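Limitations
The structure tokens in this dataset are predictions for the assembled complex, not deposited experimental models. Users should treat interface geometry with appropriate caution, especially where small molecules or nucleic acid strands are included. An illustrative entry is reproduced here so readers can see what is and is not provided.
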Amino acid sequence: MKRIKAGLIGFGTVGTGVVKAFERNREILEQRLGAAVELKRIVSRDIERPRGVEVAPGLLSTDVQSILRDPEIELVIELMGGYEPARTYILEAIAQGKDVVTANKALLALHGPEIFEAAKKAGVDVFYEAAVAGAIPVITAIRENLCINRFQSLFGILNGTCNYILTRMTDEGADFSEVLKDAQAQGYAEADPTFDVEGIDTAHKLSVLISLCFGTPVDFDRIYIEGISRITALDIQFAKEFGYKIKLLAICKEEGGRIEARVHPTMLTQGHPLTDVDGVFNAVRIVGDFSGPIMLSGRGAGMDATASAVMGDVMSCVRNRVTGSSGRAPARGYRCEAIRSLPIKPMDEVVSQYYLRFMVNDRPGVLAKIAGILGDRRIGIASMIQPERHQEDSVPVVLLTHEAVEADVRCALAAIDALEVIREPSRFIRIEASLD
Amino acid sequence: MKRIKAGLIGFGTVGTGVVKAFERNREILEQRLGAAVELKRIVSRDIERPRGVEVAPGLLSTDVQSILRDPEIELVIELMGGYEPARTYILEAIAQGKDVVTANKALLALHGPEIFEAAKKAGVDVFYEAAVAGAIPVITAIRENLCINRFQSLFGILNGTCNYILTRMTDEGADFSEVLKDAQAQGYAEADPTFDVEGIDTAHKLSVLISLCFGTPVDFDRIYIEGISRITALDIQFAKEFGYKIKLLAICKEEGGRIEARVHPTMLTQGHPLTDVDGVFNAVRIVGDFSGPIMLSGRGAGMDATASAVMGDVMSCVRNRVTGSSGRAPARGYRCEAIRSLPIKPMDEVVSQYYLRFMVNDRPGVLAKIAGILGDRRIGIASMIQPERHQEDSVPVVLLTHEAVEADVRCALAAIDALEVIREPSRFIRIEASLD
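Predicted assembly:
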């Protein structure tokens, strides 16, 4: 039986899961592969901390070169995260002719093209199923199974922390900051939660998925990103009253050769398949011209779920190595030569329905003024709630619009916010009304 | 650019979808593959009937040997269905060194081992993503992405006809035969619907999935199969009252080296992720020890959705051919040498909760008699409805049990049915209470 030697860089939560999988399910791996995979070296800054898994003495090292320079190691599993030195290590591994399995979405979102082109040149594989949506096989589904399709849209719940916070806010009527604190205490949110709650992590993953769906590089700065930190219990309450649920969605759509790429809190009709994806679960709903809608859901993070995806990639690398077919499928689904830059549609041109909330002085004529300004910008009102709920002397007015152009909405809101009767900056949340 | 020539056997609905995909998305295929695929020959019994797709003159033939004996054709797409002559054609294609893509679950369920072993020997690929759940990439997910996992359970809604009928029965309170007739008129059910409504098609697909999950051949006759034709509007109504929905599920579970393999109408708690899968949609929920629960859903049948899966397989075959790695992943996920027969747990030993419905004479002491017989067989009652609804002089008594052993339940029901007060054979439906 052929033996492939692998090195693991990064021995945190996911790394520990990978070591556990190598141990516990070694027999399954060998029966499926017809080859053995030996974890020859684990590199970590801290090799003293107990992780609750058994590691043979001599396996651990703090010296990354003990992996990168070891010609016996054919496969590098990068689970350290971050841009540097992960980028340098991965490029060096590729240059040494090693395959790479990584879960590093941040790195791929910003340096994917450099890494994938280096891999192409070296004839090695770079697999990254674990970078998006944990155990859910969305990368492979797009790259292999659905690859005949012209994709129309992709919606994703891609960040477990945000989904956990929004789910609890929805269930408990609690405020963002309160739930965040509790999520941090329970380990569902980082001490510095910015990457998660501000939508950056979701955008990293969206960037990776866009590239796979459409064969275009994505200038990360062109993705519109809005997190969940400004969502209030009040907005969630109103959403419910209108029959909606708020989710942080990654959205991409293709129309006329342009791509919409945006991450923002989104109101979905109760009953939309994504509204049932709660807590730390992730889901992706993708629509192809032949496949129709396909939805994949499961655990998007965590030690074991992410290890499942990493090990799937490890086994694919080994299959390719053993049959001499490394690089058989291009890492981005499209061959390097076929990658061409598609323009991102400016956010100002995006068309959506909107939830608008104004805090106004409760006095006659206010609604007429607001409606007038919206009407001037061709923004139609679909429904309205003006509840008898007073916060001090201001009262919320909530409108749902028909489809409108983002620039018009922003322009109207600026004009409305300048009215004397408006007590605080208006809030808006986009509504995704259609399924596709 | 390398050109691979393919032959299509069977030009029905799915075949037409495949021809359409070759035409419409040829550019995507070539950009992703870096190779071209030419449909060189289409064989069908009826080459006159217009299909609404354009086919170059000379492409059509009634002679299957014009594909099987053409050395230029490296890839055969079998979409004729049925056991014979499909089996013979596939074996001959394999013997000629051609790859095979098929959607033929009936054939694979009964003759899979023969076909896969022939493919192994010939060093060619046999792919069959389209055989189970249409466009949903469940085969690849199990074979490649989730393959490190020890699977605990798999639940599937795998037959669109049954799910469509049950959904309409649930929504409309209509009876089976009535909805079936309408489904036939609308093309959602075959003129002879036996394979679908009696659960046989679902069991074929379950057989394929069990083999992939556990590396065991499945003796098709050992799968317990019960269709939906005996489900009544009354049972659906009671299910609702208890907070359940009835779905035809394919179920497999592994415990202690034995496999549960069963297809039957199943009551699921409203809110279970599979209860939202309605109409012709299919879904699979699979639980692995590392991945946790993964759910995949989408269109399980139809021209375009099935063509999407077929084309994904075609492109995988081509990738392997171009890189000389045909057979890189074993067709069943486990290598032929690692396949070993796991015993199927006899249905009598299966443990489940049950919905029981008795039609009784409305007279004192009846319930005591029923409860006594159930108690004698260690079957605990979890809840009960005895509504004030009279059908002639009989009245339904409905019980939900705690977990009980199938043999005990059948034995108790036989004893109860022998009571003089029982007006018609008792009905039972299994309840899947846990998610995993």
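Some entries come with short summary sentences. For this one: Residues 59 and 318 of chain A are 21 Å apart (CA to CA).
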